[in-house]
Amino acid sequence: MKAFVALILLVQIAVYQTKPHGPKPIGPSPPLGMRDCDSPEGEEAAAVAVDYINAHHAHGYKYALNRIEKLRVLPTGPSSERVILELDLLETKCHVLNPLPLENCTVRELTGHAVEGDCDVKLLRKDGKLSVLAASCHSSPDSAEDIIKICPDCPLLIPLNDTRVVKTVELLLDQYHSTNDVYFTLIEIARAQMQAPNAIFVEFAISATNCSSKDASEHAEACQALSGDQATFGFCVGSVMHVPNENIQVECEVYAPQPDVVHPVLAKDTVGLLSVPVHGFSHHNLRHSHSSHFNDSSESNSAEVSVAYTLSPKLVVKRTVSEPEHPGGVLDPLHPGCPGRVRHFRI
Ligand SMILES: *[C@@H]1O[C@H](CO)[C@@H](O)[C@H](O)[C@H]1NC(C)=O
Ligand SMILES: *[C@@H]1O[C@H](CO)[C@@H](O)[C@H](O)[C@H]1NC(C)=O
Ligand SMILES: *[C@@H]1O[C@H](CO)[C@@H](O)[C@H](O)[C@H]1NC(C)=O
Ligand SMILES: *[C@@H]1O[C@H](CO)[C@@H](O)[C@H](O)[C@H]1NC(C)=O
User: Fold this and answer.
1) For residue 46, with 0-12 CB atoms within 10 Å meaning exposed, 13-18 middle and 19 or more buried, which class applies?
2) How large is the average pLDDT for residues 58-74?
3) Residue 5: is its pLDDT beyond 80?
């Protein structure tokens, strides 16, 4: 297989080098393994890949497929083939702890400061069954300039560790506890947006503890997040506005315990979830969530970290080599039928 991939690379390089200038011909037969991105096999592989990515994403939100950028299928044996995908994803409004199936999650609209994910995924189809061999993702929010163009007043993402954000979340959680018996502890701040001059909108995930709000008012430090079968999570959306008067709003949805769900977040001891510092970033990068699951030694949340959650360096190699022939995601004459259709919107 190694030799085969190397051969493909050589073929690509050769094709590219023999036609360094001038228009690329639309050949009668596409290069080896290239397939129409919107073909049923592309859709099927993308669905498996997106499920996998969401199942291994421990922070922030679930992602939905927006577009298949590239699709290649390479036979590896009489009843097996390798499927190589490049995907565009969009952040949904479902937190990863939300038990709603992805189909029921809405994609965050452009005016809500959308976040895009890019993934390279390699799958194996053996005897008709697809499994993911490797996936490498990263995500980034739309630029503030883009949003201001279509909506000058829309609240924009701000760093999750901003003092105003942390204070707002504390205030909203207190507010929630004032009307609820169960004491919840913060798992993570998932999103924070600010609207000038000083309105703050936040979204955060919480976990039920063994304390009542009354217990907690006396000894909050002794309250433990419920774990195992009893683990109970929730998700809150709230805001604090100061114009003209202070206006505090918070709504939390508490999810029924999901003892049967195998999810990295739910599988772990919830206490381990409590210390997830995200310093200076305005969203939970897909990359970080994945890397933790795959034994990446890097604990850093820096978007500059180059370690992706990659099981194989080949994907990275392939990408570097093929980048020049596919600048900016424009239609690729060497890869007809790709990129595929946009399901939501382009960022
Ligand atoms: C998800 O959406 C489908 C179709 O709209 C609906 O039938 C189903 O009840 C929804 N599931 C949940 C858990 O809301
Ligand atoms: C919660 O659990 C902790 C650790 O088991 C215990 O020390 C504490 O007393 C419990 N709190 C309540 C209110 O049961
Ligand atoms: C947020 O994190 C960044 C990067 O680590 C740091 O420079 C900044 O001081 C932090 N802000 C606050 C309010 O802690
Ligand atoms: C992480 O690595 C250790 C040793 O290298 C291994 O025992 C463990 O199973 C790995 N964990 C995961 C989640 O892959």
Assistant:
1) buried
2) 95
3) no
Ligand 3 proximity of 167 Cβ (cutoff 6 Å):
no
Domains of the chain: 40-147+285-316 (3.10.450.10), 159-267 (3.10.450.10)
Comparing 36 with 55, which gets the higher pLDDT?
36
Rounded (5°) CA angle 206-283-316 = 125
Q: Is 230 a pocket residue for ligand 2 (Cβ < 6 Å)?
A: no
Best of 93, 104, 261 for a ligand 1 pocket test (most atoms within 8 Å of beta carbon):
104
Cα–Cα nearest to 25, from 16, 12, 36: 16
Cα–Cα dist 132/66, whole Å:
19
Q: Which of 207, 255, 243 is nearest to 99 (CA)?
A: 255
Tell me: pLDDT of 322 over 70: no
For the segment 273-305, what is each residue's pLDDT rounded down to a tens digit? 444 556 668 888 887 444 333 333 333 332 222
**pTM (2 decimals)?**
0.77
Q: Is the C-beta atom of 104 inside 6 A of ligand 1? A: yes
Q: How far is the CA of 95 from the centre of ligand 2 (A)?
A: 28
